[in-house]
Every structure is written in C-alpha cells, then in structure tokens.
Amino acid sequence: MEEKRILKLDRYDYKILINALNEFRTKLINENVECGIVDDLLIRVIDAPVEKRKLSLGRTKGSFTHESR
C-alpha cells in the first residue's frame, strides 16, 4: 500500500518548494539525466488542492475568526 503524506505550507514555503524542484529539474536536464519523476512531482505539487478557510462571525458583534476545515 502506498504511503501518503499531507503537507500544509504557507505561500512562502510553497514558492520555495516549487523553486527548489524546478532548480533540481534544470540541473538534471543540464547533466542529461532523466527528470521525468521530478516533472511528475512538480506537477503534483502545483496542482495540489488548497485548504479552504471559512470566515464566520464571532460572538462579539463585528469580530471575525478564521476556521480551518
């Protein structure tokens, strides 16, 4: 059975991950090494779903809180 992991990344970490994978892919291409597996991973990271947050009213009138699903 394939083990799956879920990562929660903020925008900054997400951009670092995309950049690192892309730089690694470029390095492999320059060394004439097959990079298909890195391509697949890069596409999966780019297409990963974004966790939606809902905005709800708190008990005090006018205050808002963020809730993660």
Outline the secondary-structure elements:
Blueprint: H1 11-30, H2 36-46, E1 53-57, E2 64-68
Antiparallel strand pairs: 1-2
Keywords:
2 strands, 69 residues, alpha+beta, 14% strand, two-stranded antiparallel ribbon, 2 helices
Question: What structural class should be given to the helix and strand makeup?
Answer: alpha+beta
Q: What level of helicity do the residues show?
A: 40-55%
Order of strands in the sheet with the most strands? 1-2
- State the order of secondary-structure elements, H for helix, E for strand: HHEE
Could you describe the largest sheet, including whether it forms a barrel?
Answer: 2 strands, antiparallel
Characterization of this structure:
With 69 residues, this protein is α+β, with helices and mostly antiparallel strands. The chain has one domain (11-68). It has helices at 11-30, 36-46; strands at 53-57, 64-68. A two-stranded antiparallel sheet has the order 1-2. Strand 1 (53-57) and strand 2 form a beta hairpin. Helix 1 (11-30) runs antiparallel to helix 2 (36-46). The longest helix has 20 residues, at 11-30. The radius of gyration is 18 Å and the shape is elongated.
